[in-house]
Inverse folding.
């Protein structure tokens, strides 16, 4: 496939791809690394996990026996997709952090069966995901148009195409939990601003549960999540010419009971200094020092409703799996 220069778009009859990850995408990693690695408590944002290898590791995580969210969310979608199609009458589905759109097919099937489906808009920072997903879906759903957006949903929401009719903005997988609470509400407000009177937000949230179940989901026995976690160091080595040895770091996943979120960290096994040449930066780690790489917030119905209300949204439907592990919610702007 032809390479699309940054900030431009390419189109075939059914596929249009817009790319917004120009130098600014690279700068975002450089800025985040400079900021996060020089803090007293070192931290990197989770969006940098997802290069092609990180995306592949995430797919393997979704298949792990301990990682229940993907299966639970799929079960809810299978149970409720027809009702979601009926309630929304959506002609298009915009998906933030779409990845391989594996579960999305359940929704697309329901919208196609309802006879309303016309366009799918996947939005993801991982270019290969958006391109492969566009090719796969246009061949699986004859007549479907795919308008892919390669970009950062924290920076490029204003680049979404105009709605062509009632639409669903889907934010699945519990990715909203990767935002800290204040940014989460700000982000939800930005999504709310995109919703017209006929539109809905369909969001997946992981629910608070037994900490041992949560910790196992983020520290699997096969070590796939540990590799996913360390992958961010490989991204820094490649993109910023750093010399991290990923094996110098131990994977840590723990449930913070007061904040009700999982924290993933990388803990230095020994004292050492890393050189990030692209930033001309030396980063010192004490033995046992931790770098936080992700929070994954778990929700109660009250917390979720509070966050939605703070963003000016009202809950239209709350759906959960038989074990109550995960929730899918449909919300909208209240009619005046
Ligand atoms: N929605 C899928 C994938 C979840 S993994 C599912 O439910 O299984 C999170 C996805 O969000 C990845 O594909 C990652 O590349 C993407 N992502 C993470 N941060 C992002 C950001 N800031 N902007 C756009 N995409 C992002
Ligand atoms: C994408 N996101 C919702 C996943 C989560 O569960 O927070 C990422 C992940 N991190 C470790 N395992 C999966």
């Amino acid at each position: 496939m032809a390479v699309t220069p940054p900030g431009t778009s390419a189109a075939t009859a059914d596929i249009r791809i817009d790319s917004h990850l120009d130098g600014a995408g690279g700068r975002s990693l450089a800025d985040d690394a400079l900021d996060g690695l020089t803090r007293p408590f070192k931290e990197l944002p989770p969006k940098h996990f997802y290069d092609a290898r990180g995306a592949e590791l995430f797919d393997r995580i979704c298949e792990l026996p301990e990682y229940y969210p993907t299966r639970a969310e799929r079960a809810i979608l299978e149970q409720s997709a027809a009702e979601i199609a009926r309630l929304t009458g959506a002609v298009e589905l915009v998906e933030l952090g779409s990845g391989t759109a594996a579960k999305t097919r359940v929704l697309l099937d329901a919208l196609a069966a309802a006879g309303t489906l016309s366009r799918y808009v996947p939005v993801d920072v991982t270019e290969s995901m958006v391109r492969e997903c566009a090719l796969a879906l246009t061949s699986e759903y004859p007549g479907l148009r795919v308008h892919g957006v390669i970009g950062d949903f924290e920076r490029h929401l204003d680049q979404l195409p105009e709605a062509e009719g009632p639409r669903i903005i889907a934010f699945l997988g519990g990715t909203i939990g990767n935002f800290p609470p204040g940014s989460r509400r700000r982000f939800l407000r930005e999504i709310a601003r995109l919703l017209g009177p006929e539109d809905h937000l369909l969001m997946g949230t992981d629910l608070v549960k037994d900490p041992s179940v949560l910790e196992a989901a983020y520290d699997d026995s096969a070590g796939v999540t540990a590799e996913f976690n360390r992958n961010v160091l490989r991204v820094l080595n490649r993109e910023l010419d750093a010399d991290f040895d990923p094996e110098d770091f131990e994977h840590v996943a723990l449930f913070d009971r007061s904040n009700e979120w999982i924290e993933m960290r990388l803990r230095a096994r020994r004292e050492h200094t890393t050189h990030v040449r692209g930033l001309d930066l030396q980063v010192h780690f004490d033995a046992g020092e931790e770098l936080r790489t992700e929070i994954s917030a778990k929700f109660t119905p009250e917390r979720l409703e509070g966050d939605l209300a703070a963003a000016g949204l009202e809950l239209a439907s709350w759906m959960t799996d038989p074990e109550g592990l995960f929730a899918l919610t449909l919300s909208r702007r209240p009619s005046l």
